[in-house]
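Translate sequence into structure tokens.
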Amino acid sequence: MYDVIVIGAGIIGTFVARELSRYNLRIGIVEKTNDVANGTTKANSAIIHCGYDAMPGTLKAKFNVLGNPMFDQVCKELDVPFKRVGSLVVAFAEEELKTLEDLYNRGLTNGIKTLKLLTAEETKKLEPNLNDTVQGALYAPDCGIIGPFELAIALAENAIENGATLLLNQEVTGIEQNEDGFKVITQDREMQTKYVVNCAGVFADQIYNMVTPADFKITPRRGQYFVLDKTAGSLCSMPIFQCPNELGKGILILPTVHGNILVGPDAKDIEDKTDLSTERERLEYIRETARKTSDKIPFEAIITSFAGLRATPSNGDFIIGESDKVKGFINVAGIESPGLSASPAIAAYVVEIIKEIAGGLEKNVNFNPHRREYIIFSELSSAEKSALIKKDPRYGRVVCRCEQVTEGEIVDVIHRKAGATTVDGVKRRARPGMGRCQGGFCSPRVIEVLARELDVDMSDIVKDSIKSKILTGVTKLL
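Result follows.
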């Protein structure tokens, strides 16, 4: 019996679970895949927006503005990479300067007082690799960049450390309301809970349909990206947006917290909620459109491309609140951009909703906001490295040369709460395979370590999903 079941282990679901773990509640996090952060959270622009873009009066505006300043404390507590680097929306034509003024005024209406309108000269001084056709820019100094899947993993880990339960590979197939709340049914179990929080991303409308006909629809909007090698890291120091259009914020270039460069995304509404394919013509469109921002983008330094899905709601805004048809069922749906930026504020609001429904919640006096120490070997001093290797020789064995990841770090992320069980799970937690060779050299060793630490056969280790088999047997036997 649970007090609250959170459906979906993306950034919203894990934030909600972590905030709920501040109270004496039995919390279940139910996830259909075999890892945390396996949906939109693992494939997005990783930007913490300051809130000028959202229309005044919307939930997007409200929670973005509230959420942005919360990241410094959360990321400090959970030891997650986060940098406030600022951002630019750049005009390349005279008529686009009016768009910048509109965004500036919208930001003021939303309560943002740090925005600045820059001249062409001021803009080029901040980002010298912009094209000379730049006319001016909107500068938002409070914008930040983050590791989104690292944050979701840390949130899940901390929630579990504070009493929550993570249930992976549990696809919800039915939800039945009863006198005690709800029966949540998956392919191999039934769970009773007082409250359900629907954080199912692009599948949120389908989950809501299990209890009542949904009054909203979620359309998956696919965005594709290029990732450039760290050698391109000096291209820009902050996210650089072109003027937005009806489909979103347009093609941008931005640094990641780990020193790479992202270019993208495009925006294409699709029907298949699992389609993460990339398309040559769309990637070429991104390439050509990005050159409007800078003709110095070194596309020869591309190391990979990927696609992510945004949960675009039919009402154009976040859908957050208790269902007026099904009491105790809380929707947190349509959380597209700026959903990542709004996530801590959304989670706090969901807790207040449950408090009101329950008539108050008892605090967990043992709540610890800090997760267990997380070691990044490459960031240690020489003396610290020597001391750590002396204590644990596994930190002296480098597995991934591109990212300088050691065996000790891989073993650590396997055995943490919400630990890695797949090659991509290790990759998202410790970064082997994120570098120039994209796992070409280190993946076999990662498989060996996973198999050894999980005490399974190497052929049982998958890349990501349950069906993504890598090995089938010994070559010579075949």
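Note: The two ends are 48 Å apart (CA to CA).
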